[in-house]
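Human: I would love a firmer grasp of how sequence relates to backbone shape in proteins. Take your time, and here it is.
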Amino acid sequence: MSTVLLLTLSNCFMTIAWYGHLKYGHSWPLWKAILVSWAIALFEYCLAVPANRLGYGEFSGFQLKIIQEVITLIVFMGFAVTFLKEKLAWNYLVAFAFLAVAAFFAFAFRATNATG
């Protein structure tokens, strides 16, 4: 559970780093947006790296990446609606549902060792 919590927190920082300047940073020169984003992303790395290290025995590398992507989409969905004030259209919800089905398949069945 600590892996999921750390990945969620790291994705909050990364979402702000990548997309936060879209609302308030249009008057900034690009170099400033990049530097501010990198400064915020440092906190993301300080959470994501331990999350992946802690989770790697419990989850496979593929599963960790899928968890991270699902969390990224959930965090971004909340960010886009609340911070960017964008409308959550039906087609985005359908796309997220298909991704949830993909995540289900990644965890519902035991993977065989492909290195054989």
About this structure: The chain has a mean pLDDT of 90. The first helix runs from residue 2 to 19. Helices lie at 2-19, 21-24, 30-55, 61-82, 90-108.
